[in-house]
Amino acid sequence: MANPPQVETVTSGADKAKLAAALLLLIGALVAYYGLAKQGALVQWASLIVLLAAAVGAFFLSEHGKSLIAYGRDSVREVKKVVWPTRKEATQMTGYVFAFVVVMALFLWMTDKTLEWVLYDLILGWKR
């Protein structure tokens, strides 16, 4: 029996550099936000947003980011294949679920009261 081919994830140095740059930009965004507190809220938020956007951009340029985008596209494609129930079918199934819950609640209540009566009144003789 032949062995199945092994799948290896190969990351290049450039890809690692892109991920490191994204991480450094993320840390830089946090440092800039707290470090520029005396400059005013506008400067704080602008630096945070610009550096976060740069970090996200650097991440999406890496292989991990590209595979995340491909995963998202595949997920959307799979959701489009789903056959969704009609409004009538969804309403009927919801009604069935509610009816089952009510029947089960009544069954459990009757079981609880029956066991309470058997244990407390018949076996222990406690009358309330």
From TrEMBL:
Essential subunit of the Sec protein translocation channel SecYEG. Clamps together the 2 halves of SecY. May contact the channel plug during translocation. It is found in: Membrane. The keyword Transport applies. Keywords: Cell membrane, Membrane, Protein transport, Translocation, Transmembrane, Transmembrane helix, Transport. Its main location: membrane. The chain crosses the membrane at residues 19-36, 42-61, 93-111. The keyword Metal-binding does not apply. It comes from the Bacteria. Pfam families: SecE. This is Protein translocase subunit SecE. Component of the Sec protein translocase complex. Heterotrimer consisting of SecY, SecE and SecG subunits. The heterotrimers can form oligomers, although 1 heterotrimer is thought to be able to translocate proteins. Interacts with the ribosome. Interacts with SecDF, and other proteins may be involved. Interacts with SecA. PANTHER family: PROTEIN TRANSLOCASE SUBUNIT SECE. Belongs to the SecE/SEC61-gamma family.
